[in-house]
Amino acid sequence: MDNILTQIAQYKQEASAFTAANAEAAENFRIKYLGTKGILKSVMGEMKNVPNENKKQFGQTVNELKSFLERKHAELKAAFESRETASSGMDLSLPGDPVSVGTRHPLTITRNRIVSIFKRLGFALAEGPDIEDDWHNFGAMNLPEDHPARDMQDTFYINQNPSWLLRTHTSSVQARVMETQKPPIRVICPGRVYRNETISARAHCFFHQVEGLYIDENVSFADLKQTLYFFVKEMFGNDVKVRFRPSYFPFTEPSAEMDISCRICEGEGCNVCKHTGWVEILGSGMVHPNVLENFGIDSNKYTGYAFGMGIERIAQLKYRVNDLRLYSQNDVRFLKQFTGAL
């Protein structure tokens, strides 16, 4: 018993005289005295050799040694840390580095703006899968078997017989809505679409669309025009000029494309508007009776209109972006320009 107590006193004396010049030395002290294989652990293991009548005294001595070693280690560590802080010249009273605040992507900003405008007109939001079957993407939309859009040059097919593909437009979402809902139907369908096109400043193999569909009794082309007039004024301002041009789409009849005065050159003529002063922003028309009948909707009772626009094109005119590829290059210099547009 006396030998053990003498040894403890020596350990305490050695620890008291220990000094640390750096963090490594302070860590070595901890390992030597307080580690799992250290001196304290060894001393505590001697408890089994101490007579029962002396165990209480021995336990108190060991606890005192433990407290002393822990205080000593804390002092060494604190002394080293204080010296390091002083030598670094760090002024803790200075303000911290600014934290950079991110923003939504310009396409997300534009999409949310479009959705917000049409929601005010009573349109509900509808979404669908990016991978579609041939029926929902083409057949239900009155596109014949020999339509060029079905060709491998335009469409990314995943499987054939049966045909599965990356959707070429969000009209497939309209098809799924008409499949599950009865009129009146009033929805907008935003989402990403895919087409096998050469990537350039004006085209990409993927882009984003917002399509709209309204089906009810006595819906007319005048309703379509006034809806789109309202949208354009809200998106681009009251000074924007609008024109409709007759066009053709398999899923609408009659059909029209909608142009607005170029926001890049203010109608003076530039590369974006091909020096015409006008830029096409969407296609539209009255839903073809065949499309309605494909989903069991009585075309003699119900009529409807549909429209579709590219979000990239709207963002291009809204923010004067001159290259479609900028949207997907993740260039921080480009994205930082939209920091204020939350």
Automatic annotation (TrEMBL):
Mg(2+) binds at E253. GO terms for molecular function: ATP binding; magnesium ion binding; phenylalanine-tRNA ligase activity; tRNA binding. GO terms for cellular component: cytoplasm. Keywords: Aminoacyl-tRNA synthetase, ATP-binding, Cytoplasm, Ligase, Magnesium, Metal-binding, Nucleotide-binding, Protein biosynthesis. It is found in: Cytoplasm. This is Phenylalanine--tRNA ligase alpha subunit. It catalyses: tRNA(Phe) + L-phenylalanine + ATP = L-phenylalanyl-tRNA(Phe) + AMP + diphosphate + H(+). It holds the Pfam family Phe_tRNA-synt_N. Residues 114-317 form the Aminoacyl-transfer RNA synthetases class-II family profile domain. InterPro entries: aa-tRNA-synth_II (IPR006195), aa-tRNA-synth_II/BPL/LPL (IPR045864), Phe-tRNA-synth_IIc_asu (IPR004529), Phe-tRNA_ligase_II_N (IPR004188), Phe_tRNA_ligase_alpha1_bac (IPR022911), Phenylalanyl-tRNA_Synthase (IPR002319), tRNA-bd_arm (IPR010978). One of its GO terms (biological process) is phenylalanyl-tRNA aminoacylation.
